[in-house]
Amino acid sequence: MKKLLMISMLLMLNACAAFKLVKSQQTTVHGITLTPTSTWNKAGFNQHKKSELWTKDGLGLNELYIIGNINEGESIFKSHNKELPLPTFKKGMLPNELEEFIKTSLKNSHGGTISVTTDNMSPVELGDDIAFRLQLSYFLEHGLKKSVDALLTTKNDKLYVIMYVAPSMHYAQKHQAEINSIFESVVI
Amino acid sequence: MLRLIFIILLTAAGMLSAEASEMTFAPTIDTKYEPDWSSDEGGFWYKVNQIEADIKSSPYLVRDTALNDYVNNMVCRIAGEYCASIRVYIIDNPHFNASMYPNGMMHVWTGLLLRVENEAQLAAVLGHEIAHFLRAHQIEQWRSAQSAAWAAILLDTGIAAVTGVYGVATLAMSGNSAAFSRTHEKEADIMGAELMHKAGYNPTAASELWQRVLEEREQDKSKDSNWSFWASHPPSKERSEYLLSHAHKLKALPKSESQSEPLFKLLSSNYFKLMRNHVDLQEHEQTKILLKRHSSLGYPQEKIDFFFGELYRKRAQDGDTEKALEYYLASIQSPKSPPQAFKHLAYLYLKKKDKEQAKTHFLKYLERAPQAKDKAMIKYYLKSLG
Prior knowledge:
The structure holds two protein chains of two kinds.
Chain A: H1 2-16, E1 19-22, E2 27-29, E3 32-34, E4 40-43, E5 51-55, E6 63-70, H2 95-109, E7 116-126, E8 129-139, E9 145-155, E10 158-167, H3 171-174, H4 176-185
Antiparallel strand pairs in A: 1-4, 2-3, 4-5, 5-6, 6-10, 7-8, 8-9, 9-10
Chain B: H1 2-19, H2 40-56, H3 65-79, E1 87-91, E2 98-100, E3 105-109, H4 110-113, H5 119-134, H6 137-144, H7 148-160, H8 178-198, H9 204-219, H10 229-232, H11 236-249, H12 261-279, H13 284-295, H14 301-315, H15 320-331, H16 340-351, H17 355-368, H18 375-385
Parallel strand pairs in B: 1-3
Antiparallel strand pairs in B: 2-3
Helix pairs in contact in B: 1-3, 3-5, 5-8, 5-9, 8-11, 9-11, 12-14, 13-14, 14-15, 15-16, 16-17, 17-18
């Protein structure tokens, strides 16, 4: 019981001191240069050493993952389950493989219990490079639907991902213009 | 029609039960059991009823009426007079599990359905779960909880079981009450085997199932041998042995025709969705073991070939590209092959720099799936291929 209380208190403390303001100016995160047009809140803890997590209204309501410089053999999230490893990036992955890579990363980070559906997938010009935009959705166990809007590209055998995750109801659309603007500003 | 079959089966099961030997363990609840709602057990039921309300609207609930009827009828056949107390929910979760709740709610995960080789093996798991219910193991576990906090965790994990992770008295019970749980597990194994025997199923199937679980685990070299599952369960080898030994003590049943065909027919119509969910885990070694078994169970061959293609393409070890091509090509020989087989073939040809074949297969994919969600991506490639 004491142990549980201590863990809860630590989590609460972590939650209180965990955010830092992100100004609406150009910034570079793990090799991805992007320009938010409004302020965000950066979480002090990360899913991964090569990622940052931003939110507008609070985690769970909207989450912007900025993940870059992912090398061959690395995953995009921190693995917590030895029984269900996360997929790793491989050089030369084509869009269909990257789509599956992202979907399985999301699925397995939820213990393999969710089914992730592709809603749209299209090419995007990113300067001289070609990236692609992937729109996904999945249901949480209690039926809450989440939407994922991701921009993916590879450069010099490294993977770069910006992924916006929010409940499909209200929050996915609420900041769509800002997400579009951020995606358009991306330079690798 | 199903109802008629069910009545015939129940009658047959009743005839068999009259001949059967006495049960080793007797139920500890009666058919209309309800707790005192002001007791701790009443509180436990209240929470579990809430879980049940959630699951009824879960997007992961498999709603195929025929499949649900079939599994429900199997449960009734095994549970006999307790049939009306049990409600089955099939959940699309690719892991191997089933779970039972004190209020009569039973979860059957699709990962279990994908692993059984005959109806009797499924009956073994259903019998095991029904035994947990009849012996009220859940409330004993609840009361054995060392503190209110641990009890809360038990419920939280139960709630998480709406799509998976853990259930109360689940096959994959959390290890904190390991020793206690193992006693219950063994009791449920013995009682489950006797219940399935009474219902006319060969009880050696229970031993066979655990043997398969052990084989799957041993063949999956990507995994640590210290699976948390074993903390709360008798190890598969031990389990398989005592189940076989106990099955041999029960009166031999008359040999009957295979009862599995109708079950596999129903599972076959859901096969692509269920196996897709498993393949998406990218658990390649497990997938390989399952697909090899499925090949002999009558699942649609073009889907099995497709999933073998998926397995080798995603695993991407030396020589896997060629194997993936071979399986996808075998799959597309059938008009019932999934359209995605053409797409993945096209991408594989793209990797091999065979532009003509890539183009041909991208075009066939769009022809088969004109509304594909990734058609903009495919059109981009078609344009770049000229």
